[in-house]
Each structure stands twice: as C-alpha cells, then as structure tokens.
Amino acid sequence: MNANPPLNPAPRSAGGAIGRATRIGIAVNLALAVFKLGAGVAGESQAVVADGIEALLDVFTAALVYAGARLWSRPADDCHPHGHGRIETLFAVGIGLSLVLAAVGIGWRAIATLQEPHGEPPGWIAAAAALASIVGKEALCRWTLGIGRGIRSLALVAAAWHYRSDALSSIPVLLAVTGAILFPAWTLLDHLGAVVVSVFILHAAFRITWPRLKELIDAGAPPEVRKKICDLAAAAHPGVLQVHGVRTRSIGSALQVDLHLVVEGSLSIREGHAIAQEVEDRLVRDIEDVVDVTVHLEPPEEAQPDGVAPAACGRPEGGGP
C-alpha cells in the first residue's frame, strides 16, 4: 500500500540554487587556478603548479554539476517513475574518478622529478598563491556545503568536500614552499608538497566515490537508520502490532523505504489504509531523506520472531546486523 506519489529528492528551487552555486564556484576556481598556475610558473614551484591544476579540476567539477543539474532535477515520468536521482549519483562518481586520475598524474610527476635540482628556490609569489588558495577554498567550501545540504544535493556536497580537500592540501604546499624559500638547500620540500597534494586529492576522491558506488549497487541504509525506521513505524499508530521486512534504497539524495506492518486481521480495508498512511506520514516527516514509503499490511499470523513491536525493539531487516 503506497499513498505517496513518486517524489523528487530535492525541492523545485534546487535547480536555481545549484546553478547559482556552480556559477560562483566556476568563477572563484578559475580565478584561483589562473593565479596559482601563473604564480607557480613565475615562482618556480612545482607544488603550486600542482595546486593550480587541482583548481582547474574544480572548474571541471563545477561545470559538470551545472550541466547535470537540469537532468537529475527533472520530475518523475513514465520511464523514470522513481525520478532521475541516479543521474546525480553517476555525476558524483565521475567527479571522484577524475580526481583519482589527477592525483596519480600529479604524484607521479612529483616523484619522477624528485632528483632534478631546482635552478632557484621558489619565489614568495608562490607562497602567496598557496595562502590565497587556503582562504578562498575554505570560504567556498562552507558556502557550497550549506547550499548542498539545504537542498540535499549529492553533487554539490561532493563539490564542497572537494573544495575543503583543496584548502587542506594547500596547507602543506604553503609550508613546503615557504621552507624551500627560507632554506634554499631544501628545494626537495617543493616536490614533497606536490606529493602531499596528490594524497589529499585521492582522499577526497574516496570520500566522494565510495558512498555513490554503494548506492549504484543498491546497498541499503546503515543499521542505525533502519532501526530508526522500525521504531518510528512501530510507534506511529496504536494499531501497529509489529514491523518487519524493512528494506531501503537510495535514489540520488532520497531514501525509499518499504516495510511490512502486522495489524489485526479483523480491520477493514479503510482502517488498514489509515494505519499505513499514518506510518508513511510519520517516516517522511521525521526522517529527512525519506521521500517515499511502501507499506505491506499483514495479519498477526505473519508476525516475525525478530520483528519490532511497539513495546520491544528487535533487529531490523529480518534480523540482519
């Protein structure tokens, strides 16, 4: 029984918010990329050049989000009754994989040129570029993260964490370049700074890609979320005798749920429907990511020994972990 129509993961205003966030992201990242690449070349700093390449990747990331927002924000239709949220998931995976390729390239070049001597130590303009990157990327991260969480956009949140990784990776760049400037014999630090940048990029790629890959293979919600679903459903209406068979799946940033409710077999169809509707409304209202709930009504003889009753919590999803 499902009284809820297919819903979109994000509100209608999401497209405009994503467009505004990505346009500003593109402008800020492009400005930082040009500054860091120019400063890295002028200041003879491989670490800052690597940081500039990472900023160009952010331009690419923001452009992908901007282009894809119109696709995954479209409402559900006959061909896509669950909406288009998986398109956003695919874009997030694409962003993560592009980061992996960039990290491997930057790290390989830094290690391969480790023994090459610098003609001159890096200049202060390279250090200034790294400092500008730390301040600019952290500010952009906080602003984008606020918008992404507000409209529940996976791609915007992924982009924001990418900005945060850039800000963090620029800290060792700043230290490495400053150290190489103050101690010219230690120009090796500049190469090591580029290696550190590549490690930070790989870390960001993992944080972005792994959860999205689990979504693509229909991994369920974490045990604590499933338990919360069971407990809320069991307490939603006095007519609920037990909850079991909870299953979840992610569609973009949305969570869809189906579950089994045990109710008295003597209830009318109308009374059973009212109980199911109460449970659906409670889950959608109290769990932010839940947008669609399907309820199966069963008589007491279908009760499960490991189900969740109003007075005693058990293990969700058929006794799973």
Structural class: mainly alpha
What is the helix/strand order?
A: HHHHHHHEEHEH
Number of strands: 3
Largest sheet: 3 strands, mixed
- Percent of residues in helices comes to 55-70%
Q: What's the CATH architecture of the largest domain? A: Up-down Bundle
Read across the widest sheet, the strand sequence of neighbours is 1-2-3
> N-to-C terminal Cα separation, in Å?
27 Å
Task: Average the pLDDT over all residues and give the rounded result.
Answer: 77
CATH homologous superfamily heading of the largest domain: Cation efflux protein transmembrane domain
Report on the structure:
With 321 residues, the protein is mostly helical. The chain has two domains: 14-216, Cation efflux protein transmembrane domain (Alpha-lytic protease prodomain-like, Up-down Bundle); 223-319, Alpha-Beta Plaits. The chain has helices spanning 14-42, 46-72, 85-112, 124-151, 154-182, 188-216, 223-235, 269-286, 316-319, and strands spanning 242-251, 254-262, 290-298. A three-stranded mixed beta sheet has the order 1-2-3. Helix 8 links the parallel strand 2 and strand 3. Helix 3 (85-112) packs parallel to helix 5 (154-182). Residues 1-12 and 311-321 have low confidence and may be disordered.
What key phrases describe this protein's structure?
321 residues, Alpha-lytic protease prodomain-like, three-stranded mixed β-sheet, mainly alpha, 2 domains
